[in-house]
Every structure is written in C-alpha cells, then in structure tokens.
Specification:
With 267 residues, the protein is α/β, with parallel strands linked by helices. It folds into two domains: 95 residues, NIF3 (NGG1p interacting factor 3)-like (Udp-n-acetylmuramoylalanyl-d-glutamate--2,6- Diaminopimelate Ligase, Chain: A, domain 1, 3-Layer(aba) Sandwich), CATH 3.40.1390; 124 residues, Udp-n-acetylmuramoylalanyl-d-glutamate--2,6- Diaminopimelate Ligase, Chain: A, domain 1. It contains nine helices and 14 strands. The protein has a six-stranded mixed β-sheet with strand order 5-6-10-11-12-8, sandwiched between helices. The chain has a four-stranded mixed β-sheet with strand order 1-4-3-2. Helix 2 runs parallel beside helix 3. The C terminus is likely disordered. Bound molecules: zinc ion (ZN). The site of zinc ion has 5 residues, from loops.
Length: 267
C-alpha cells in the first residue's frame, strides 16, 4: 500500500474530514513517497530527531500528532524545509493528525489518558471544545483522591521526565474531573462544566494563578507525555492493515534524548 492510500485509511479511521483544526495542523499526509509502505512507526512530533530515528529504524510511514506546518516565521520555514529534505532523503512519509487524534473515542489521546488514570470504568461525557468539537472527557460519579491521580501520572502510566506539576487549587478528593491532553487551559469551560479538577499536559502561568483563585486543581502531566497514546494506537491499527511484522515501533522522548521503544511497552 502506498503512503497516499494508507493516509486515506487513517482519515477514515479518524474521520478527519469532520474536523476543523488550527491552520498549522494540516491533518493528512504531509510528506509522501512512491513506494509501498513496509514499516510503520510513531512519534509525537515530526521534528528532525524523530525523522532521523525513523530513517534509521527503516520506518517508511511515520504517524505523528504535531506535524511540520506549525508556525510561519522565517525560522519556522527553515526548520520545515530541513525536515522535509531529511524525510525525503530517508524515504520517510509523514502522516499527521492533530484534533482528530485527540478526540477519537477509542484510540484517541484523551481516551488513552483516561485509561492511564484508571478512570475508564467511571461515567464520562465528552468535554473540552477545541475548534468547535469536544476533544476530551469529563468524568464524574465517584470520588478520587487527587494524590492518587497524580501517582497514576507519575507511576509510568503517563511517562514523565520532568515530573508532574500539581496546582492544588481545588479539593483533595476530586468528584468532577476534566481530562484533555496537550495544552488545554480553558478554565471558562472547566468552570462552566462545574469541574473541580483538570488533568492536561500543560497550561501557561496565568492560568495556574487563576486556577488557584477559582478553586480548581490542575494536574499537569506534560504535553508530550499526555499525547503519546493516539499515535501509538493508530500505528498499531495500521500495522495490521499492511501486515508489518516489526515489534519496535516508536520514538520515545526521554530526559537524555530519544530512544527506540519496545513495542507494546508504553501506555
Ligand atoms: Zn499537542
């Protein structure tokens, strides 16, 4: 199967057409090639390091969450040109999916984070609007210790190299929890939904200050760390489509730089 055809499979799984996204997202095939895909890999970011890892690992179809079109400055364009050059040279096709991959109810990032937090059996409803669609979840109908949720993030379920940041603005026992991966800092939505806790990747400093004042807990588990779920799950599904037998499959960022991850060992 050629990258173009495999990208169509991805778009079908993710229902890409139904999503508006930020201009930099450009969901779909961003770099292609004319050969049949043999090995599928994943990375959260389509940065130079991930592209080089893919080339070295023989990955010819790389699934990413943050593609190469973010930013329009002169420097951004330079960086982009270099990434494209390197991907072409190494024969790595790049397929990127942003909001569709956050939102997907089974393989999406937010669902992955819900599972990692051990909240997948609790009652949940879609929450967290970005570009007109809900991309996360709100979980309620139980009582969960804030410290327990933080431990889940720290304990390897959500791999974190810089530590989980906690703003203890709300109660120590959480009853209504918003879960949206990446950099979701819309406290208006959190407040309106009556949530006492938001689990996300990161927010800016003024949002941390506001959260304290509004009585909301923030559990900030890392932008990268909360967004490894979707790319892995999509890569797994695609592997079945092309009959890829490889077990090493992903570029895992670590404190000292990247490393190739063993298949099925994260999440
Ligand atoms: Zn993100």
């Amino acid at each position: 199967m050629k990258p173009r055809d495999l990208a169509r499979v991805c778009d079908r799984i993710l229902q890409t057409k139904k999503f508006k996204d930020y201009p930099g997202a450009r969901n779909g095939l961003q770099v292609g090639h004319g050969r049949s895909v043999e090995k599928i890999g994943w990375a959260v970011d389509a940065d130079l390091e991930s592209i080089r890892w893919a080339g070295k690992a023989g990955v010819d179809f790389l699934v990413v969450h943050h593609g190469i079109f973010w930013g329009e400055s002169v420097l951004d364009r330079k960086i982009r040109a270099r990434r494209v050059r390197e991907a072409k040279r190494l024969g790595v096709a790049i397929y990127s999916s942003h909001l569709p991959l956050d939102a997907h109810p089974e393989i999406g990032n937010s669902t992955g984070l819900v599972r990692a937090l051990g909240l997948d059996r609790a009652k949940r409803k879609p929450f967290g609007v970005a570009m007109g669609r809900r991309i996360g979840w709100k979980v309620e109908g139980g009582r969960w210790k804030r410290s327990g949720l933080v431990r889940r993030c720290e304990g390897g379920k959500v791999r974190r190299f810089g530590g989980v940041k906690v703003i203890q603005g709300g109660p120590a026992v959480c009853r209504k929890i918003g879960i949206v991966t990446g950099g979701f800092g819309d406290l208006d939505q959190v407040k309106k939904a009556g949530l006492d806790t938001l689990v996300t990747g990161e927010v800016d400093y003024p949002t941390e200050v506001k959260a304290r004042e509004l009585g909301i807990n923030l559990i900030l588990a890392g932008h990268y760390e909360t967004e490894t779920f979707g790319v892995q799950a999509l890569a797994d599904q695609l592997r079945a489509v092309v009959g890829d037998q490889w077990s090493e499959d992903g570029w895992q960022r670590t404190e000292t730089g990247g490393q190739m991850a063993e298949g099925g060992d994260q999440g």
